Amino acid sequence: MEFALYDHASGYYARAARRSGRAGDFFTSVDVGSVFGTLLAAQVVEMARLIEPRAPSPEFDLVEAAASDGRLSADILREIRRGDPALFDRLRLHLVEVSAEARAAQRDTLGEVSDRLASSSPDLPASFTGVLVANELLDALPVHQVVMREDGLREVYVDHARLETGDWRLVTTEGAPSTPALAEYLARLNIVLEPGWTAEINLRAVEWTRDAVRRLERGFLILVDYGHAARELYSLTHATGTLTTFSRHTMAGPERPPSLRFGETGTAFAPAWLERPGDQDITAHVDFTSVQRAAEDAGAITLGLLDQTYFLLGLGAAEMDGADLKTRLALKTLLMPGGLGSTLKVLILGKNVGTPPLRGCSFRMRLT
Fold first, then answer.
1. What single-letter DSSP state applies at residue 58?
2. Same structural domain, 123 and 267
3. Domain that holds residue 250
4. Of 115, 146, 160, 211, whose CB is crowded by the most CB atoms within 10 A?
5. Crossing angle for the helix pair 71-83 and 35-51, nearest 10 degrees?
6. Contact residues for 243 (Cβ-Cβ < 8 A; gap 6+)
């Protein structure tokens, strides 16, 4: 998954400035227009005002992780410039993106607000005071896939097999877990997988969150992603796992590895996510329980965890009903139950800011 998505020469994300949208493989909230960024700007402005009284310097850092070509930040900055010019003038934008091609496109995407760009890098700033936004980052971080067998936990590995034609094909096979951290992860959650259940464990998401919180001196993190609480993610509902692909707006998977008899070490299997490496997205749902705990262990406080629908309604989405048809259609896409509104969750974290009430949490704190 690491190689297929992020290899500098062959990786899916590394080879293009943008992968989402009508001409891409999937839709994100950013692809429906500027409405998502406009609403997020309201939350960023409120957070900036909460930080300001005790800020050690007048600068305010806005960090976007997995920024792609910078479209979301451009929408946020344009709204801040319109509504709060003073904040816009002291804002420093940091775009974090692994794709060199995407980074090269960021200034053009930002256009007239590009003078706020302070850094563009594959890595988070060493330290910052302000707000970090990560929209659909964690679900694209490489995961370990495990399957429970009668004789214990097994890990799924990528291998290759020769076909009758003499060609080679990527397949999966099973073996002993590569690290005791996988079993420890499940034990910390008091999760017991039943024999035959498949699951993904995202150690990288936990590490990234812990690192991001440590780099934040004072401020907030807004993490938007597909996922569930651990008790739901690791349950019968998702017993086949959630690892899947998107290509041309078509999802393939998740797929259950073949059943094994007691004592067998694994058989070759070729799931859809192994096909055309580097040419399709690979994703797995986020365990928000572990991400939240990692953030809190690093010094953050959870201020909210809710459906995107309720987050955006708290920011004033309902007040935009009188807008033009294009905006109303965009709002419908962002808010609709069963679509982006309920499948995307928003985790809001604060560090050294107390527990202030936030607009984004003011409508309803609800997860579906």
1. S
2. no
3. 144-200+233-281
4. 146
5. 60
6. 143, 145, 200, 253, 254, 271, 273, 282, 283, 284
Q: Tell which residue, 293, 125, 290, has the closest CA to residue 212.
A: 125
CB of 145 closer than 8 Å to CB of 266: no
The 10s digit of each residue's pLDDT in 264-305 is: 445 556 777 888 887 788 889 999 999 999 999 999 999 999
Q: Specify whether the CB–CB gap between 93 and 59 falls below 8 A.
A: no
3 state DSSP class of 44:
helix
Query: 33: alpha, beta or left, given left = phi > 0 and alpha = psi -120 to 50?
Result: left
As given in the structure block, the two tokens for residue 215 are 């780099």
Whether residues 50 and 83 share a domain: the answer is yes
Find out whether 91 and 238 touch, Cβ atoms under 8 Å: no
Short-list 34, 27, 66, 68, CA closest to 341: 27
User: For residues 320 and 238, what is the distance between their CA atoms, to the nearest angstrom?
Assistant: 36
Please tell me the total count of domains within the chain: 2
Cis-peptide into 254, omega within 30 deg: yes
- 143-192 confidence digits (pLDDT tens): 999 999 999 999 999 988 766 676 788 888 999 999 999 999 999 999 99
Instruction: Tokens 């690791």: give the residue.
Output: 234
The Cα–Cα gap between 39 and 64 comes to 15
Query: Do 103 and 183 lie in a common domain?
Result: no
Within a domain: 3: no
Give the pTM. 0.91
Q: What are the helix and strand counts (H, E) for the chain?
A: 12, 15
CATH number at residue 297: 3.40.50.12710
